[in-house]
């Protein structure tokens, strides 16, 4: 039987427990999962590409079938390069649905053989977003229960250095 290969794309600025929840669950279902970190984004990013990669690697190193790669192209082109035919996305709330639908239809148009598969984010993590976490940390709020320990440390340090 052909082994299943999935990619999970995102900016991961920074990776949160919400992302990790999706990654762990995907790693139980697919043979291989590649976390695809987009190098540049039209969002203003807090962490450098190296920092984002290192944090993602650190918090997923115990997942033997998960690897981390960078890409700077269309997600579908990267998936083809990786010989992956599954795109993983997380759905947190109804508000994600419309955006995800547009993304999926566009990706289907670009690469009809690549399937998008959605995971409902665990309920207790469904309100998290990377920007919200950064905003709360910026004002000195505690977000340690929303982030892996090493990510929280990196965020606190980053915010101190920004002052
Ligand atoms: N738990 C917690 N947060 C989550 C989450 C989850 N399960 N799922 C999504 N999020 C957050 C992300 O952290 C992000 O937060 P932010 O906006 O505050 O940074 C937000 O929800 C949106 O996530 P996502 O849709 O994954 O956006 P992204 O910026 O991380 O990634 C790409 C978007 C990279 C997938 C998309 O821009 C892309 O495919 N780019 C490549 C170019 C391309 O192919 N373009 C055509 C697309 S059709």
Automatic annotation (TrEMBL):
KW Transcription regulation (keyword) present: no
GO biological process: coenzyme A biosynthetic process
Keyword Nucleotide-binding included in the entry's annotation: yes
Gene Ontology annotations for the cellular component aspect, listed alphabetically: cytoplasm
Cofactor(s) the protein needs: Mg(2+)
Cell compartment(s), UniProt: Cytoplasm
Protein name per its UniProtKB record: Phosphopantetheine adenylyltransferase
Species of the source: Candidatus Pantoea edessiphila
Lineage of source species: Bacteria, Pseudomonadati, Pseudomonadota, Gammaproteobacteria, Enterobacterales
């Amino acid at each position: 039987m052909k082994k299943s290969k999935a990619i999970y794309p995102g900016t991961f600025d920074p990776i949160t427990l919400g992302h990790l929840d999706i990654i762990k669950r995907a790693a139980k279902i697919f043979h291989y999962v590649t976390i695809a970190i987009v190098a540049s984004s039209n969002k203003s990013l807090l962490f450098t590409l190296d920092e984002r990669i290192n944090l993602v690697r650190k918090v997923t190193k115990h997942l033997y079938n998960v690897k981390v790669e960078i890409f700077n192209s269309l997600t579908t082109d990267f998936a083809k390069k990786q010989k992956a035919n599954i795109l993983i996305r997380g759905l947190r709330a109804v508000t994600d649905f419309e955006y995800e639908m547009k993304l999926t239809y566009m990706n289907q148009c670009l690469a009809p053989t690549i399937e998008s598969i959605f995971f409902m984010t665990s309920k207790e993590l469904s309100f998290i977003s990377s920007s919200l976490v950064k905003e709360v940390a910026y004002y000195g709020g505690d977000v340690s229960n929303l982030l892996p320990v090493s990510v929280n440390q990196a965020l606190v340090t980053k915010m101190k250095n920004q002052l």
